[in-house]
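User: Structure please.
Assistant: Input sequence and predicted structure:
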Amino acid sequence: MVFHMKKAKNYNKETFIFSDEFKGSCYPHLCFETTLISFGLPYPENLEVAKMAEDIARNNNIVPLTIGIKNGKILIGIKDSDFDFFAKSKEIIKANMRDIPYILSTERSGALTISGMLFVMNHLGLKFLASGGLGGIHRDFETSFDISSDLIALSKYKTVVITSGFKSILDIKKSWELLETLGVIVVGYNTDKLPGFYFRETDINLNYYFYDLNKLVDFLHHWEYFSDSSILIVNPIPKEDEIDKHEFEKIMEEVEKELKKKKITGKDVTPFLLNSIHKKSKGKTIKANKSLILSNAKLGSEISKGFFEL
């Protein structure tokens, strides 16, 4: 096996607690965020999906590493009791990359977003992350100026991130344009269109795409040598679980009105939107969310395995 990876930064080992499964960054691995558990899905679906995603990795001989911060310690891989903690605790902060030093210094707990994950992964030399949807520019950008730090983190750190595109609640076109400006490579797998999270396609054409996994993995080795930022691999939601785009937009219009009426801003926006559309769709979005997360865990496992074997 020939593998090249930038050496991990120096770090305070006392800050990290590694799971028994952790074997270092040079082994096939797949990371998962704790935001999914604490803020992405309602209980008990959050626990069910998070554990199923890890099982998919294990079944592919990949080390699963769900990462979060508990009482001022960064957990690299979590136990059953930790799953329950992130699913039920009301004291957890939704943590992007800027929040981590504060959470550690005050010995608090945080569920990591994609940007938070990339911050931690960068320090340990970890490479592969499977998630649901990417953060981006919110639809009320003109008034809120709300842009997710996920986009900046992708341009700043060097990882492979597998999602089903930007979250449908966002302004997908503006998010796409900013990601392009930041120079982040976006590659479609089994699609030449940017997926829309709950729906398989938007009207945005992708510049790069593969229908062969081996060719995608080969491309990643070229990226490893010739790029300094992350690569975003977009994987459409399975066809049987996608939501009709027009149906979703109708629900979204209602939810946006409620959002403005209640004057919800900042980090509280996304959890409110997701919870509201889950209710108004009568569970359709929960089913779709679960489906795409597991699909991305499967693809992420296959990519990680192929990358380390090549």
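The CA atoms of residues 214 and 306 lie 7 Å apart.
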